[in-house]
Amino acid sequence: MYYEILDEEGNIINRIVADKKFVDKKYPNRYREIFQQPAPLPLIISKVAFRFRLTDSEYVGILSAAKNDTEVQAWVETFNMVSKIDLEDLKTADGLSMMVNKGLMTIERANEVLSTPVEDSERPEGFPNVAYI
Asked: Based on the structure, what is the number of domains in the chain?
């Protein structure tokens, strides 16, 4: 069965697949059963996680290029302004495509950055996770 795990105020903090005995024991009075599989979580990661999806040489190359290239500088400044990265957002893909066109990374690496499955540890703090038991 599918369950939503709740915090003290009744907000959803996690979604899991488990049996009733498990949730009764682990989360007494802090869960509710849901009758359909939860929708997949959006592909949103923290800025730190995005940075570490880039190699050190890619990241340093981008920072170095930003000193002389206003397009790259604008991307770096935008990166510094946002609180999280949506891997499905067209602006994210466009930014990496620009890096490819400028020779700062390969198309294969850009695709890898965007398509590597999101680990729970990459999610922004407070972002709900899905756990399968």
From this structure: 2
